[in-house]
Each structure stands twice: as structure tokens, then as C-alpha cells.
Amino acid sequence: MNGAIWRSLLWKEWREHRWKLAALVVVVLGLHAWVLDATRPGPAHYANAFWATLFIVVPIGSAFVAIGLAAGEQSQRTASFMRSSPVDLRGLAIVKLLVGVATIAAIIMLAAVLTRALVAAADAYSWQSDASSLESLDSLRHLYETGGWFLTALLIGVSVSISLILWMAAPAVNSKSEVRAGAIGLIVVVACWTLLAWGVYFVNRDAAPSSDQRVVIAHLAAMMPGGIWVALISLDGLAGQSYLLFPYLATHVPLACWYITHFGHTGDRERSRLSDADPLVAAAPVWLGPARRSPLTALLWKHTRECAPIVLAGAIGALGLAVTTICVQYSQSSTIDLMDITSESVLVAFITLGCCAGLVCGAGVLTSELEPRLLTFWRTRPIPIDLWFAIAFLGGLALLVGVFGVPVAVAYQFTMPEDRQNEPSLVLILAILVLSYASGAFTASFVRNPVYASILGFCVMMIAFATAATEWIDIPIAWLGVAALALSAVLGVAAWVCVRNDWSLRLS
């Protein structure tokens, strides 16, 4: 390809990633503003925002980038155009990977610059000394032996980002929708770590791993999605362990090759499948099942079928994550209370993945219903648009709360020690699940893009959490749950207004 084609591809990818970058920038700025507000009265730990960027924003941003890389061309119906254009699909795949990784690298550099500027301002105005602010970040230096925390953090973040992007994008390449790609990627990531954790548990059930076993475990972790970070920490850095990069490359290079060589090649398989089909079978009439008597039950059944795979995939992942966490913690110390770690593991796993499933259901499924042609179809049916939206919104919400809320309530009631049980806390936990779904539905109704809607929905939740954590809000936990439910209702009404009036901001 000549230079003009490369520039065109870069320009195309920049236009597709710019709004992802803008949304992630909002998240990073919000994290730093939150830390500045929370630490102003007392001793400040301004590096906390940078750690939050590494541990939260980088994995979530990488997941959203991977979803776009796997299903962007198919969902936007540009795959056939790209195949018919004089562009090498392998070159386009390489450009997409490079721009996606560069987006996450830009977020890491922005967070580092903001952290360093915040520390410099704190030192200049005697808010807090520079040394104490960067003390936690200085511990990063020895991991890659770079001599500075900024370069080390950039290398770690980019390594983790590349790993997550490849592990999520390669298995789901050429998916028809972002929702399907996200579900496949999540299942692959959770399955890899679950298998590794179970293997480590069964090998070291009776004793702590030896030094040689720790090296083997670290090498296996480096092969997993985002595992290079775990491997470096477990071996206390890369010094003397430079061959740790070989297992990292052993899995990620084949994944990159798989993505590059298979990107955009769905048309050949579809044509081959159609040409090989039996003409008599292909020409046979397809009889649909009997129509449902009530439009209400028909719409509810349709939306449940669309949301159920996402919710069930998240529930299976949460169950696997909870069981894995319980086994790992119990193998490290058999004297700990099994019921205690069971309650904590189940709560953390189901709340975390429940919020992710809520965002995906609210943003992804509703976005597919709001495509211009499909929305026009719904408006021409003898079904009020208000009834259609109410069923779509409440049906997905009921499924989410039923699948994730019931295990959380059971674990909280029967495994949590009585001295730590607090019914208002349970109300707040369930309200967070509702808020995640409502945030995704609101942003989907306004943006009409599942990836952007998921990121902006995460921003809405982060703003709500940051507001609740500020010092000038001091209310009981029960009222926080009520406030979260009230905010969810407001977001649901706002989404309904956007759908009813067809208000949208299409980011392209």
C-alpha cells in the first residue's frame, strides 16, 4: 500500500477512536478531580488517581477498544465495502490494532502528566511533600528496571492493554455486533483465569508454592489476558527474569496473527456455505411458529431472548470468578473462615460483573433496537412506542435483578456474619445494579452506539459514586440506596423521552 492509503486508513481509525478517547479522557479527569476533592483537607495521596487509571480505566478501556476492533466493521455494515476497496485487509487490521493500543497509551500518558502536575502544585503550595505523594509510584521502578515510574507504568499499561485487546478481539473477530463480541471476549478472559487459578489450587492444595513453582506460575500468568502485570509482581520485577517475555509472546503473537489474517473474511465463508447448501433444503419453506396472542408477551419474550445470553454469560463468569477466588484464598490459609470469604467473593464477583452486564444490556441491546430502520419499523406497528420502550426497559431490568440480585441477596443473608449484616447496605447493592442498567439505557438512547454508550454509562456511574463519596454529603446508607434508585428512575425517564422524540447524538 502506498502512503496515501496508509494515511486514509489512519484517518479512518482516528475518526472511529476519537470519541472513545474523549470518553476515557472524561473518566481520567473525573478520577483526578475526585482525588483532589477527597484529599484536600488532609494528607493527600495524589497517586491514587494514577493507580485507578492503571487498574480500572486501562482494562475497561482496552475491553471497549477490543469490542470495536472485533465487531466495528460488521456492526456498521462497512465490511463489504472494505473487502471491495483496493485495501489490503491485513494492513487495515494492523492499523486498527496500532490505533487501538495508541488510544490506551494516550490515556496512560495523560494520567501520568496530570498526576505529576498535581504533585508539583501540591509541593509548590505546601499541600503535601513531593516525596510522600510519589512514594507509592516509586515502587514501580524496579518492575521493568527503567529507572523511572512513568516509563515503567507506560510499559506495564501498554503490555496489559495489548494482551486484553488481543485476547478479546481475536476470538470474536468479525462478530456481527459489539454485544456478541463483548460476551465472547468476557467469557474467554474469565475462562482463562479460572483454568489457571484452578490449576494452581490443585497443585498447591497442601503447601505454599516453592520458588521454582512460583516461576512456573508466573510464566503461565504471563500467557493469560493481562497477566504480565501479575507475573511481574509475583516475581518482584523483570530483573533476572527477562525470559518472562517469551511466554508472553508465545500466546500473543499467534493471537495477533489470527486477528490480522481473519479480519474481514466472513464473506468467503458465507458464500461457500450458501453454495454448498442443498438446493432443495434451501428452497424449502420456513414456517414460523404461531403468533403470540398478546403484544405484551411477544415483546417481553423478544427482549428476554436478546438479554438472556448476556446476563447468563455474566452470571456464569461471576460464579466462576467467585469460586476461583474462594479456592485461591482458602488454599493460602486453611484457617480463615470459609463462610466469610464465600460471602465476600460472591458479593464482589456478582456486583462487579452484574454492573458490567447491566451496562451491556442497557447500552448494547437497546442500541440495536434504536437503529433507524428498526426504529421506523416499531413506529409503524400498532404498538404504542411508550409501551414498547417500557417493556424493553423493564424486561431487561427484571432479568438483570433476578439473575444477579437474588444470588447477592442470598449470599448476603446466609453467608455474611450476623454482626456485619446491614439491610440498608443490601438495598444499596441492589440499587447499584439498577443504576448500571439505567445508565447504559440512557446513554444508548442518546448516543445510539453500544461502545460509546457503555463508556459514557460508566462515566455516569462514576460521577454518581464520586458525588456520594464527597464530604459534603453525609447521609445514611439507606438514603444512598434511595438516591441511586431515584437517579435510575430519572435516567429511565430521560431515555424514554429521547426514544419517544427520536433525540440522538450520533457519534461517528
From TrEMBL:
Keyword Manganese: no
Keywords: Membrane, Transmembrane, Transmembrane helix
Keyword Transmembrane carried by entry: yes
Transmembrane regions listed in the UniProt entry: 21-37, 49-72, 93-119, 149-169, 181-203, 215-235, 310-331, 346-366, 387-414, 426-444, 451-470, 476-499
UniProt name for this protein: ABC-2 family transporter protein
